[in-house]
Amino acid sequence: MFKLLAYILTIKQNPKEIELTIDSNIDGEKLFLETFKISNNFRFGTKNKYLTITLKLQGLEKHFIYYLIDLLFVIEKAKKS
Fold first, then answer.
1. Hey, where are the domains in the chain?
2. Is 63 in contact with 75 (CB distance < 8 Å)?
3. C-alpha to C-alpha distance for 20 and 53, rounded to whole angstroms
4. Are 60 and 67 a contacting pair, CB within 8 Å?
5. Angle CA(36)–CA(16)–CA(34) in degrees, nearest 5?
6. What are the φ and ψ backbone dihedral angles of 38, each rounded to 5 degrees?
7. Do residues 54 and 39 touch, judged by C-beta distance below 8 A?
8. How far apart are CA 75 and CA 44, in angstroms?
């Protein structure tokens, strides 16, 4: 699990959302499709050479940490060699 955390560069949280910043060396299409299967509360954007993934916290069926753990596994699968 700690190996998966290495993909995340920054994490920002406020009462409405959590924003993760990761390196853009990733298969964006695969990431988007697999993340959408987890929840449609994820949003994507880019800043400089980094990818930002935002999870909106309102309306989630379970605690947000479950979504983030699933997201980490998706990021690992989508990571380009």
1. 2-78
2. no
3. 5
4. yes
5. 10
6. -75, -50
7. no
8. 13
CA 37 to chain centre: 12
Is 2-78 assigned to CATH 3.30.450.20? no
How large is the greatest C-alpha to C-alpha distance in the chain, in angstroms? 35
Residues 9-16: what's their mean pLDDT?
Answer: 95
Give the tokens for residue 72: 């980490």
pLDDT at 2: 60
Is 17 in contact with 56 (CB distance < 8 Å)? yes
Cα gap 1→73, rounded to integer Å: 9
Residue-level pLDDT at 5: 73
Residue 58 and residue 16 in contact, taking contact as beta carbons nearer than 8 Å: yes
Beta sheet of 42-47, edge-to-edge order: 8-13, 17-23, 50-56, 42-47
Helix (H) or strand (E) holding 51: strand 50-56
Question: What is the reported pTM?
Answer: 0.88
